[in-house]
Amino acid sequence: MAGVAGAAAAAGRSRGRGRARAVRTGGRAGRTDGQTDGPVSLPAAPPPPYPSSRRASPAQRGGRGLSIDGRSSQSERSLAASPGARPIGARGGGADRRGPARGGSRAPRTSAALRPRPDRHRGRERRVRAASGTVRQRLPRSGPASRALGPAEEPRRAREPRTELALKETMSSGGAEDDIPQAERKTVTDFCYLLDKSKQLFNGLRDLPQYGQKQWQSYFGRTFDVYTKLWKFQQQHRQVLDNRYGLKRWQIGEIASKIGQLYYHYYLRTSETSYLNEAFSFYSAIRQRSYYSQVNKEDRPELVVKKLRYYARFIVVCLLLNKMDVVKDLVKELSDEIEDYTHRFNTEDQVEWNLVLQEVAAFIEADPVMVLNDDNTIVITSNRLSETGAPLLEQGMIVGQLALADALIIGNCNNQVKFSELTIDMFRMLQALEREPMNLASQMNKPGMQESTEKPARRENPHKYLLYKPTFSQLYTFLAASFKELPANSVLLIYLSATGVFPSGRSDSEGPYDFGGVLTNSNRDIINGDALHKRNQSYKEMHCLHPGDLYPFTRKPLFIIVDSSNSVAYKNFTNLFGQPLVCLLSPTAYPKALQDQSQRGSLFTLFLNNPLMAFLFVSGLSSMRRGLWEKCQDYLRKINRDIAQLLTHSRSIDQSFLQFFGDEFLRLLLTRFIFCSATMRMHKIFRQETRNYPESYPQLPRDETVENPHLQKHILELASILDVRNVFLENTLDDY
């Protein structure tokens, strides 16, 4: 696919993925121009977000995080001690797109721009001695590196030829190699060893299992440990490395960029948003300290590509943290860098890099409503779960104790806004399933920030897999892995945002494979909409996730959200095993007045992510002042509390809804779904067809929920606050 993934791959033809966890940035990074970098103070991340009952990772025994100032902080110790978590990226270890990673099928493409990007290498054979004997290894020069050797480290002797070459090439002018003190020679030798070792481990991330929580932990611990040593070493010996090795600022920036990728990668593996703040800290420090400022003066296009990729990765992290002001600055800088790059080197990837700019511009403009301050500046709103986000459970409410543990977020909609192979629907659902980061943006640059040793009062975010246009086999593989490792009393959530696949002909039966489903990708070119109806009518569509395909996974609590033009196919579910099962289904069609906005994301998903923005959009509003926005948000919280009471006090509601209502994320999704359904049933333009309404399995009791007079009164009052009451029907019950 085009986009950051395609542009980055075409620009440098290298692979990998970076992700992340907590660090702090302080201290000084020396400059070759004689100046000194200023300190960058960062807050500590929260303690390990996993229950102590889970098995600790090998990283707890050896791996450590690192900080720019070289000290070990609470956040770093938390990272080292974090027990296992499941990967959330479809390419959990940054799998090479040329083929499948070991132990699993080829992964769907996800956020390719952020995978660890090793330099392009031509391998050269060299024999090294390992603990178990002699091993032949292909060592990197400047391209995708080989796998790491394993626990046994390479002996120092194998590093000498490269170190000697570095000494000869970077020796001070007028001096002789024999004049170099032994201590300085050893410093360069040790640095080269750590640098090579860090590259090998980093490049090996793409070979890690893409799913499951046990295999990747020890490798991450070793990788963080080596980067800790490398970063501290270059800080402590900067002058010697400047004089004898010729260490340049862009090389320091590359190390910092790799650390940022590691922390972002760890966020994707654990879903803990506090790790995003730490990835942002390293990326921000690179920009503030101008590590890449001298790259454009060198006649080496591959170095400029490194800089462009850094910008692309930084932009994605800022998008996930809702730092839109920073995103706009980065986009402008990236645009200038791309223009300079294509002008100087006349490269063939100019179109792809320009497409990156177009995609990110469309992504940040996808929200249909702007919230404005009094000075007309745009207010950035967060859609993650906050302290007051979900309605509280009141005394006497009888709900289940299930907890959302895993989520599969699948995007396969054609022509929808995306960036870095993350569609806008996937992005919105991703944020709806995360808590607000504990490291607030306002605290990030406060000096003397004290590290908190208190444990978080609330449990961690659910683990997530992000699957962009997966094939059926890929989707099923990740689904089976998540199902296998689902803890007791936990829920698996499946979110499907995909093109609908309709049955090719009428069938005498009404089984789980007779109503179609949603599209999965194929190994051939993307199927267009017309081709779906030209298959032999005697067969079912192969590249489709049918409702029956999910039956085996209903042996455990399952919460399904389907946003598709054929979502009603999942209305014909059968609960075979008696476990809690709920399906929230989008409308299969929207009024013509709203269909033109489909590229900017689904209205149904927008209601689940930001119900007030969706309400404003269907009411014909495109902007709002901050004061009125906050007033409406307060009233919407009141509506959510009343919806929660309607659900828990209903005598005819299916018990599956109540079983899921004990979890904060699922409770908020259910209340937003009912608000969405009630709003559409009262809206004049949605009343034209019943397929414009959301549905659910099991069905909700309408008179007690989506058509409850008390709820309808609340919606009319909210419309009155916004002065849009005329677009809603006053007496909706009379029409039924």
UniProtKB/TrEMBL annotation:
Single GO term (MF): transcription corepressor activity
Ranges for region Disordered: 1-182
Basic residues composition bias: residue spans: 118-129
InterPro entries linked to this entry: SCAI
Basic and acidic residues composition bias: residue spans: 153-167
Biased composition (Low complexity): 1-13, 52-61, 80-89
Name of this protein: Suppressor of cancer cell invasion
One of the GO BP terms on file: DNA-templated transcription
